[in-house]
Design goal:
289 residues, alpha+beta, Endonuclease, Chain A, 11 helices, 12 strands, 19% strand
Length: 289
Amino acid sequence: MTTAQAANLGVGRMSLHRLVGAGVFLHTAQGVYVPRDDSTREGRHAAVTRAILDADPWSVASHHSALVLHGINLYGVPFDQVQVADPRCSSRSHRSLHRHVLRDGDPVVTIGEHRAIGLPLALCQTASRWGMVAGLVSMDHALRLGEVAKDDLQSVIDSGRLRRGIRAARRAAALADGRAESPGESRLRAIVHGGSFDYDLQANVGGPGSGYVADLLIDGRVVLEFDGELKYDGPEGRKAIVAEKRREDWIRSRGYGFMRVMWPELDYPATVQRVLHGHVLATRAARAA
């Protein structure tokens, strides 16, 4: 809620400060309070965005603040700063709020009770401002959900609506692929794409039943997997580990190289590329022997 909404309920500023001190609310932006038990960064950002829009009917959510309302995965964006577009002012930035110019013709949609920039433009805005990888993670997810098509992204890039970062947006749109199943896979593909080997996504390498599918198949013979570890949590975790071990053993037994990358390792792309290079060379040598 906003300070004004609290006042309408008879809750003054001192009471709000006490609720913040007691851990009930977080004071996250200019006069905006959200429940502390909304534990995800995305959830908190969405709550603050909605509260700011409630207090200002002129503004619409933009960039990644629009994406979170659209239900799209985010990565590499400032969760503590809400992005809005406003037709009344020039662009100006505050620590917790950035107001951009809402220009004539910018597509605006309504999500629930709140207005936001249309999804294709918001995706390209995010890539242009926060970089290719941030844009790629969100574009992959939107394509996977079937909410946009690649032609929609290219139309935005060709429209001239992006005033900065158009190269990053163009690279993200060209690389975007709805077959990616997680933000980690999107980040890993961005790393691989910067290397020198051919690759394919979600490649079936054979095996029992309908076969085993690799996140990425490098050089036709190295299976590259992203492992987010979450699938090993809970009571079914041990069964998942056993099944994954059988899968890996089968793949290796057919002469494929196998490399697994964890989320923290994605922060070191040069290291991932170097280790992958070694796997590819070793597999090529084994095939030539």
